[in-house]
Design goal:
Length: 313
């Protein structure tokens, strides 16, 4: 009982601290982030950044108009207002605002806000652009439904589908947690991903992969327009189950069952073993190294024996 109270207090404290930080991002002047932080603005976005991220800020400023055009073409509606995009250089500062250490960016649609941890988006030239596109997707979705509740899996699934498969977490996609879960029968129920994602790293990544795959499945089966019509019915006040049925003429339960059945065709030993490919390669490399070392020892031993035999003394 005492443990439950302590955990509840810790959770409440975390949410209170997170809300305080997010509100501070909006209510305080940008100079409150640091005396040297800079600010740029045009008709498309407002960007706050530290001096060392100036090149990234200019890149964001340059690509944002094109990103908005691409998303407007996908969603067929405009993003009203100018989003505030905050670029952070210190990962520790960013981690205070998020629940999972895998998160590298997030959006706050009600505040038209995007925050990006640039310390982890500079590994690949196109990564920053793709992350910006992903977060702007969230703003498009929630602004369109007028801030009605959108299930987390649908929100993240559409954002990944519309941003070329890019998520806002650290996951290079070299391993498929989805394939492994489909093989082992450990897929997360879609309804469990409606409000939030599990915090364990593996399940957190799996939740993103499931969300993307489920949305892509709907698009492939029913088309983009019918998938997006789900948002129309949510906007009109329907709950998720009714919205899915109104748009696709199938219940969410049947849709999920059919999607899971489609994953059955991917259940191969190769798909499952490929998850452990890097461990296999590492072990194989270690075996080769040990084998080569033993060969060297044997050759050296034979060489010494040959010298002893040739020694007349």
């Amino acid at each position: 009982m005492l443990y439950d109270r302590v955990m509840k207090m810790n959770i409440q404290f975390f949410h209170a601290a997170r809300i305080f930080l997010l509100v501070s991002l909006i209510l305080l002047p940008w100079k409150a982030f640091g005396t040297s932080d800079r600010f740029v603005e045009d008709e498309h976005a407002r960007i706050i950044f530290p001096p060392k991220l100036e090149s990234m800020a200019m890149e964001v400023k340059q690509v944002t108009p094109r990103i908005k055009e691409e998303l407007q073409h996908i969603f067929e509606w405009e993003l009203r207002g100018k989003p505030l995009i905050i670029l952070l250089h210190e990962s520790g500062r960013f981690q205070q605002m998020v629940k999972s250490p895998l998160t590298i960016a997030f959006a706050q649609p009600k505040r038209n806000l995007v925050v990006i941890d640039c310390s982890r988006t500079n590994r690949y030239p196109s990564h920053l652009r793709n992350v910006v596109k992903h977060e702007l997707c969230h703003l498009y979705i929630h602004q369109y439904v007028e801030n009605r509740q959108v299930p987390r899996w649908l929100d993240e699934g559409i954002a990944q589908w519309a941003s070329d498969g890019i998520s806002d977490i650290v996951h290079e996609g070299k391993r498929s947690f989805l394939n492994r879960a489909a093989f082992t029968g450990e897929l997360l129920p879609i309804h469990s991903l409606s409000r939030d994602f599990p915090l364990g790293d593996a399940d957190f990544i799996l939740a993103y992969e499931e969300s993307k795959d489920f949305v892509v499945y709907m698009v492939n089966l029913y088309g983009k327009n019918k998938m997006l019509r789900i948002l129309d019915f949510i906007k009109a006040g329907e709950n998720l189950n009714d919205a899915v049925y109104s748009s696709l003429n199938v219940s969410l339960g049947v849709l999920e069952k059919d999607w899971r059945s489609s994953l059955e065709s991917r259940k191969t030993w190769f798909a499952h073993l490929s998850f452990y490919l890097y461990e296999f390669l590492f072990a194989f490399g270690a075996m080769i190294t040990v084998y080569a070392f033993i060969r060297i020892i044997i050759k050296k031993k034979r060489y010494l024996q040959a010298e002893d035999e040739d020694d007349p003394s």
